[in-house]
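Collaboration report, partner site 2.

Our partner group contributed sequences for two proteins of shared interest, and the home lab folded both. The records are reproduced in the order in which they were received, starting with the first partner submission.
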Amino acid sequence: MPLFERRNAHNITAVLLGLTFALLGRFAFADNALAGGGGLLMLGFLVLVPIGLGAITEHFSPAKRTNSWSFIFRSWGTVLLFLVTAFIFNLEGAICLIIIGPLFIVLSAVGGVLYRLLTRNRHPDDNRNTFVVAGFALLPFVAAPLESQFAAPDDFRRVQNTILINAPAEAVWHNIIRVPAISAQDLGPSLVDKIGFPRPVEATLSFEGVGGVRHATFERGVEFIETVDVWEPRRRISFRIVPNTATIPPTTFDEHVTVGGRFFDVLRGTYELQPAGPGRTRLVLYSQQRLSTRLNPYAGLWTDFVMSEIQERILRVVAKRSEAEAAQATSASALVSGRP
């Protein structure tokens, strides 16, 4: 079967036109003219462009219509080609592409379905279908100036992790107020590493008590300045967090996921130690973040996941070190007392 027989030629044309539309949307929404409205985080790009992509792909697909849902795979293929193209030509960072990928896949299918519904009972060559697909193609760019007049809402989110540690509060407290250097082996593998988030390295403390300043450092020059405003020894420590933007290279994060940037910030962190029986401590770590996008419920799924994964890994390091210290202290005490 020749690759470029009529049906395959239609499919290839449909995918390439959908790809062209998506790339046009990417460059248009990344332009400075729309930066004030949110740029690539505007609904026009995140929602209307993939819907338009799906409609365009379906419009230029082979004329024969069936009741099968297999046509959706054409729009998915176009989305995957767009994501690969954006990655190869460094149009967006891997983190952003992973985040928008599921959204584009779902909404491109929605676009294909909507186009089919709006053109049902018509011959594929009916000129009215051209007006329908033109509407899908123009809608993102027509809606963008209107959308840019409205500020993105702020969503303040809390992410909490808990771990049970076989060590007394004294040992745990010692390991949270300051965190000595953490190796990659201490942390173990994680998906957040693979998608490009820096690993935590260490946390220092200028002095113990309210007003003390922790410097929490991560790989690739990422540093957070944490000013202690709650200090309850062996019970709770809480601090305000400000990213040290002077030390963070511009290549570390994509601008859309930069901590302390326009769209996302980490505001506070708190450790709480709770008694959990003789020689055991329940350690709770929670943080507060600000998320300022037009799709906060969706974006929040990703920021919550990343923050939870980072916090969980830190808790595991603290638990392992605290339990090792407690075991060492127990052994030393047994030697001093002469017990076997």
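Second partner submission, folded after the first:
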Amino acid sequence: MRDVQVVEVFKSASGGGNPAPIAVDAEGLTAEQMTAIARRYGHESGFAFHPEQAADNDYRFRFFVPLHEMSMCGHATIGTVWLLHKLGRLQRERLSIETLSGTVTAHVQGLESQDPFIEISQPVGTVEPLSRPELREEIIEAIGLRAEDILDLPLLNAATSRVKTLIPVRNPALLDAARPDSARIEALCELIDSTGFYLFCPRPGIERQFDSRQFPKASGYPEDAATGIAATALAFGLLQYGLIENGERSILVHQGRAMGRPSDIHVRFELDGQGQPNGCFVGGYSAFATWQQPEADHHGA
């Protein structure tokens, strides 16, 4: 197997983070080989290549889950940049990266630091009501909750790179009690053009902090410990819901607690000259995973 190192991304003070197997020397790997690596590790995986547009970009990244290629993966992007930093391959704090979903900018805050904060750009989000609002009850049943467990707000499809269905849960205890039915979730996601359900609730008494869980449509595992692209979609959904005010203050999304992998995802809006969001950045801290060998039965992504 090509040299692969596992990086835990969006780590919190309590540990956690979302493991991402990373290969920074992926030249020559085929899509089938990269899918096989992701399947063997059981996690979203990142692969770094020379850019196709070398005059404009520093790297080209590709992303795979055990079942298919992904156009974008936030935590694998951050994990790949972090690993390049740890290997001494970064010469500047700002990078331009080609992905299937477009060009991404990465910022390494503290290039000389052993523990840099790394964030990546995402475009302005889109937020829309569900095309099939009559499926609300079925969606709630598919996550193992009841109608009264959900806030009296609409379910929304939000996206920066991939569409996520936002489900506002009443409190953290109910959020932790959710139990995904992966087969039903996949079928429902097909009907509403979504790539996963993103459950969230405000953290009681703390402004701009939220707890969340991500149940993907079809990745080969039932839940993610930290999902940067979903957190950016959530940020724009929160504006639509009126649960946050516009501004430069970061939003902190806590994910993974129910899996025993508490993770912290930081999102901040990028504002235009009129003070309106024209994009955002998502970031966090990373570290080498305590395990590096693939575990066939491990699905804690």
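Feedback sent to the partner group on the second submission included the following. The chain has two domains: 5-118, 126-283. The first strand starts at residue 5 and ends at 11.
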